[in-house]
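Incident log, entry 3
Record: PIN domain-like family protein (200 residues)
Problem: checksum mismatch between cached and fresh output.
Input:
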Amino acid sequence: MVLCDGTFIHHLLLHRLIPINDALARLLGTRIIPFTTRCIIGELRSLGESHREALEAAQQLMIARCDHEKRINAMDCIESVVGEVNSEHFFVATQDADMRKKFQKIPGVPVMYGLRNSLFIEQPSSMQKQFVKSSEERRLHLPESEDLKVRDLNPRDKISNNPDHGDADETLLRTASDKRNMLGVSRTSQLKRKRAKDWL
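Fresh output:
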């Protein structure tokens, strides 16, 4: 999803980068849905005849909910829609240099802009790169509570952690094996190995 302000929409029309969906899809390599807000439409309307075509184009886009009773400026409106963590995963598309700098300080917000008849994505700022790195590290390290849940699912871990290795543990393994057989797991794995040999 790409959240477009009035300056970006005006740029696309000025350089005939239309239809807007196609221009954005060429840059991102996938089908996208362009959005704007009621505040941005109101801002374009206030600019009069010089921005009439941009206003009409903006009115054809999907409207991201901004909940502002009175129109506010585009930067504040987009910032409120994106929020602190960009939970809707918006790209922000603008020609406004101040807005581009502003959103480079917010983690997880790719910024798009136009330069003549081409479109570009801003390089991630050092702050955004650090946020991505931290997020990846958090994903790679399971909390202890999650690690315990995984261990509880594996009967072999219970045996290796039990110094007695008694009959109860052997029964536990057989029971787990029987359940897999009932589900066809072991039969399926044998079938896969046999098929793999057929290709050799």
